[in-house]
Amino acid sequence: MNIESLMSSPQLLSPHFVGALLQSDPAAAAQVLWRAACEDNHYAQLLLGQMLLDGDRVERNPREALRWFRRAADAGVAMGMNMVGRCLENGWGAPTDFEQAASWYLRAAEQELDWALYNYAHMLANGRGVARDRAQALQWFKRAAALGHARSMNFIGQYYEFGWEVEADPAAAVDWYRRSAEGGDFRGQCSYASVLTDAGRIDEAAHWLGLAIQTATPAYLEQLAVTLEASPHARLRRIAAEIRAERPQRS
Question: In this structure, is the dihedral angle defined by the CA atoms of residues 19, 24, 30 and 34, taken in order, positive or negative?
């Protein structure tokens, strides 16, 4: 399909076509997405909103991003609801409003969207916009984990490691951390590496840390480097040096 035919039939928009167009002609891709979003293509609304939020191939505009997320949310799209919640929680495009953010997360979570389940659980665990209830949060984290949400698995591991609202169970904690790590969450990979290090399994810990630093956020990498620099294990201190060496290239 060419751009002209898609512009006249935006409902035919496909992720494959958009992905290819974003690589070859970002300006044309943004135009196509805008037209499709105006025609209430919810995939286009979400993708265009994310691009505007991140400043990815378009000028960053959180307020406009929120407008597109709301259009999808008002049409009952769970990810749209979740992203409205993200914007309101973080003050992207609108004043921070934890109560409204939690409400949007809950609406999306009730549709069993894994990220919304996680986000609502996180609000409950921290008492942001809702009364703090770590026991209830655990149940929402488990619902997300049942859908394969790796970051939720890491939080569940912390519950069992530290005995939050449950009896401490080191074996269960390790199992949840392992599942999170295998699911690709960099926090879970670091948590699993930590318990492997405590068990003296340094080579395995280094393996998971090597994977974690490929996807971790800059702020998390900074904290990780500080922690590893204090390690008694030379292998792990070398990973800290690798992080320091790579940071200037990523910034």
Answer: negative
State the CATH number of the domain containing residue 169. Answer: 1.25.40
Q: Note whether residue 244 is domain-resident.
A: yes
- pLDDT tens digits, 128-186: 999 999 999 999 999 999 999 999 999 999 999 999 999 999 999 999 999 999 999 99
For residue 19, pLDDT beyond 90: no
The secondary structure of 35-67, three-state, reads HHHHCCCHHHHHHHHHHHHHCCCCCCCHHHHHH
CA distances from 182 to 139, 151, 156, 194, 198 (A): 21, 11, 15, 15, 19
Question: Which two three-digit tokens encode residue 115?
Answer: 């990220």
- Reading the block at residue 214, the tokens are 């490929």
Task: Report in angstroms the alpha-carbon separations of 221 from 64, 176, 204.
Answer: 31, 22, 19
Give the model's pLDDT for residue 3: 40
pLDDT tens, 194-205? 999 999 999 999
91: nearest Cα among 69, 115, 68, 66: 66
DSSP letter assigned to residue 11: G
Looking at the domain assignment, is residue 58 inside a domain? no
Give percent above pLDDT 70 in the chain. 92
